[in-house]
Amino acid sequence: MRMKNCCVEYPVYEKEWLGISFDKLSVKPSFYDLATSEFYDAFYEKFLDKYSGFMDLPGDWLAAKRITAEYISGLLPDGAKVLSYGCGSGYVESLIASNRSDLRLTAFDFAEVASKFIENDSSVNIIKELDPKYKFNVIYINLYCMQLIFKDALNFLVRSVMIFWKMVAL
Ligand SMILES: C[S@@+](CC[C@H](N)C(=O)[O-])C[C@H]1O[C@@H](n2cnc3c(N)ncnc32)[C@H](O)[C@@H]1O
User: Fold this and answer.
1) Is residue 124 part of a domain?
2) Ligand 1 neighbourhood includes 20 CB (under 6 angstroms)
3) For the chain, how many structural domains are there in total?
4) 7: part of which helix (H) or strand (E)?
5) Does 36 sit in the ligand 1 pocket, CB within 6 Å?
6) Containing domain of residue 96, as a range?
7) Atom of ligand 1 at shortest range from CA of 147
8) Is the CB–ligand 1 distance for residue 144 below 6 Å?
9) Is the dihedral of CA 46, 65, 149, 139 positive or negative?
10) Which helix (H) or strand (E) is 44 found in, with range?
């Protein structure tokens, strides 16, 4: 957020994430449509070329995610079955799992290789497909997954969440 004259200016688009310029990706984002799984696959391909683990990532990004993880941890009831929808690299999930061994934490992302850094972390169950037979007490979701409102995924979420539920948009 930047101050300009008397107003607060919010950027409404971005050109890069984590030092990875969208110009360099094999799939370009659309100005009008939300990002597709193909776009995210192309992004994570570059991400994994550039970074070999969480500790390579920029310190301010890691710090912001630690705050997110702490916030979410504070919302989760004891022993909850939790789904992170759109987990990305899984850094937030690895932090939550390391502080909350009581949870059963599952992570999903439609980008194939997004969660590579946590693939050997036994405290987070990574799923590659959605199945309505999965049931969760809490599902938290990133706002970047908004397009699911128009897709079958919303159907999955509604059928998969149990009586106590909260949806947290980050
Ligand atoms: C900005 S990243 C955030 C990742 C992670 N939640 C975090 O806070 O670090 C958004 C993630 O949502 C995923 N995503 C976007 N739309 C999605 C959808 N419809 N279904 C599943 N994952 C989606 C992307 O692949 C990407 O990894």
Assistant:
1) yes
2) no
3) 1
4) strand 7-9
5) no
6) 56-169
7) 19
8) yes
9) positive
10) helix 37-50
